[in-house]
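Deviation from plan, reported transparently: magnesium ion complex.
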Amino acid sequence: MDFKIAVLKGDGIGPEIVNEAIKVLDKIGEKFGHKFNYEQGYLGGESIDKFGKPLTDETVELCKNSDAVLLGAVGGPKWDVIDPAIRPEKGLLGIRKALELYTNLRPAILYNALKDASPLKPEIIGDGLDMMVIRELTGGLYFGKKELTKDYAYDTMYYTRGEIERIVKKGFEIARLRSKKLTSVEKANVLDSSKLWKEVAIEMGKDYPDVELIHMYADNAAMQLVINPRQFDTIVTENTFGDILSDEASMLTGSIGMLPSASLGDGKVGLYEPIHGSAPDIAGKGIANPIATILSVAMMLRYSFNLTEEADTIEKAVEAVLNEGYRTGDIYSEGTKKVGTVEMGELIKERL
Ligand code: NAI
Ligand code: MG
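Because the crystal trials were delayed, the predicted structure below was used instead.
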C-alpha cells in the first residue's frame, strides 16, 4: 500500500530524531511491501524563521491531505524572547485543533532492560510495566467557560454526552486491542461532569462485554499508579486528570527519551510525536535518543494504517537492541554500550 505522511521535523533535536524514524519506516516498507511518501511541512520555530508564524495554512492543508502526521518537537530559547502570540508551542496547539484531535494516547512502557531507570522499587515493577493512558484532549477545564478578574476566577469542567461517548468508545476499542481491561477514571463522588462520565461509561460497557470495566476516582488512581501500577492496562479519562496521570505514568518508566504518543480524532489523520520536547541542551550533538520517535512511528502503523504486524516488528526490534545492551546517553548505565542517535537508529533498523 501507498501512504502519504506529512513530516514536521520542528526544532532542536526534532530533525535528528525524525530522520532515524524515517529510516526505520523505509526499511519496514521494503520488508512488507509498502511505499511511504513524505512531504515536509514546517512547525514551530522553524516556521517562525521562514514565514513569521509558527503554523501556516499551507502546513495545515498539507497535514489535512495526508494519511498521518509525524512530528519531531518544537521550541527553544531562540524563540522565547519573541511575542507570545507567535511562540512555537502555538503551532502545536494550532495543528492539533485544525485536525480535531480529541484523543491523546500515551503508552507508558518500562522495558525489562531499563528497570533501573524507574523510580519504583523492583518488587513493584515486577517484570515490567505496559499501560496506555488515554486522555481527552479538547474539552473540560482547558476549554470550558472561564473568567479571570482581580477578585475571583473560574474554569468550568464542561462535557457533553457526545464528547464523553466518543472518547470512552476509543477507550473500549483500544482496550480491546490490548488486554481487554479498561479503567475509567473520574471523580463521580464530587463532580457532576464525572457523574455523567461514569454513567456513559457504564452504558457503553454493555456494547463491550468482552472488556472488563473498572471505575476509579482520580485521586485513588494517582496513588494506585505508584503502589500497584501493574493493575492497569488501559486508562481513559478527561483532559485535566489525563494531563496529570499521563505525566505521572510516564515518569514511572524514568526515561523521557523512550515514550511515544498519538493524537487521534474521527478524521483519517492522526498525529504522532515523542512526548519529550526539542531538548535544546543536546541539539546538534548527535546524542538524542530516537526511540520515542521510532515508537511513535510504530503507533502510526498500528492506529492510522492498521498495520499491526509491522508495528509489532518495530517494537520488538527496539526491545532487542535494548536487551543487547545498547543505550543512548539518557538511558545509559554502567556496563552498557553507549551509542549516538544515528547508531541507535541503524541498530533498530538492522534488527527489523
Ligand atoms: P525537553 O523534553 O525538551 O527536555 C527535558 C530534558 O530531557 C533535557 O535535559 C533534554 O536534554 C532531555 N531529553 C528530552 N528528549 C530527549 C531525547 N530524545 N534524548 C535524550 N534526552 C532527551 O523539555 P524542556 O527542556 O522543558 O523543553 C525544551 C523546549 O521544548 C522548550 O522550548 C519547550 O517549550 C519545548 N517542548 C516542546 C514539546 C513538543 O514539541 N511537543 C513538548 C515539551 C517541551
Ligand atoms: Mg503535561
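Residues 300 and 306 are 8 Å apart (CA to CA). We consider this an acceptable substitute for the interim report.
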